[in-house]
């Protein structure tokens, strides 16, 4: 395949993902029909099925893109920190910033588990933001040992609940303070 064909193929795929995202945010997964997606993307139905098995596969691609964007934001912000705790606090702030992208909380935390199932949704998170969280916790809490994975999973769930609360009007500052308290409490407990 020539470079221009590859570029056109990627542009078509991206146009479908972008159109799908817009419609999934606007109408929800269940209310979005594939003819609407192809019309919004300016492509044919055949192009949709060339790139994605079905609407659910397109939705999964949208979710994977969103999850990668969140992880990239966290990594970018926390990379400038030298201490593990500061890295985790900066990562928490970056997570909340990233989740403020219009529709992202709904897509990742409400629609994805409902459409893809909780296991598939959790696997996407585990490959992205949760992986970054686990690395930060490993650096901050080297004594966590076998508890590292469950602690990462529980804290990741706490971040998600906080993002939903913030999206619905709760004070972000309070959740950022609560995350710091949780991290400090874990560190104190494990060092005893």
> Over the alpha carbons, how many angstroms does the gyration radius reach?
19 Å
Could you give the order of the helices and strands?
HHHHHHHHHH
User: What's the number of helices?
Assistant: 10
What does the overall shape look like? elongated
Strand content range: under 5%
InterPro entries: Homeodomain-like_sf, HTH-type_TetR-like_transc_reg, HTH_TetR
Keywords: DNA-binding, Transcription, Transcription regulation
Protein name: TetR family transcriptional regulator
Pfam families: TetR_N
Tags for this model:
192 residues; mainly alpha; 10 helices; 80% helix; transcription regulation; Homeodomain-like_sf; transcription; TetR family transcriptional regulator
Describe the structure.
It holds the Pfam family TetR_N. α5 (84-98) packs antiparallel against α10 and α8 (129-140) crosses α9 (148-167). The mean pLDDT is 94. The chain has ten helices and no strands. It is an all-alpha fold. The protein has helices at 3-27, 34-41, 45-51, 55-78, 84-98, 104-116, 118-127, 129-140, 148-167, 172-191.
């Amino acid at each position: 395949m020539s470079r221009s064909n590859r570029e056109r193929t990627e542009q078509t795929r991206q146009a479908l993902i972008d159109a799908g995202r817009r419609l999934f945010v606007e109408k929800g997964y269940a209310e979005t029909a594939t003819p609407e997606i192809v019309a919004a993307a300016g492509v044919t139905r055949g192009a949709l099925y060339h790139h994605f098995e079905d609407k659910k596969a397109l939705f999964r691609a949208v979710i994977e893109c969103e999850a990668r964007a969140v992880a990239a934001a966290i990594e970018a912000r926390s990379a400038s920190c030298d201490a593990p705790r500061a890295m985790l606090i900066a990562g928490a702030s970056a997570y909340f910033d990233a989740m403020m992208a219009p529709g992202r909380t709904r897509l990742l935390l409400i629609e994805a588990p409902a459409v893809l199932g909780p296991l598939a949704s959790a696997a996407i998170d585990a490959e992205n933001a949760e992986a970054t969280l686990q690395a930060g916790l490993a650096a901050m809490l080297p004594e966590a040992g076998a508890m590292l994975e469950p602690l990462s999973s529980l804290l990741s769930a706490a971040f998600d609940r906080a993002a939903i609360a913030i999206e619905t009007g709760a004070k972000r500052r309070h959740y950022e303070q609560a995350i710091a308290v949780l991290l400090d409490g874990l560190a104190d407990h494990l060092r005893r």
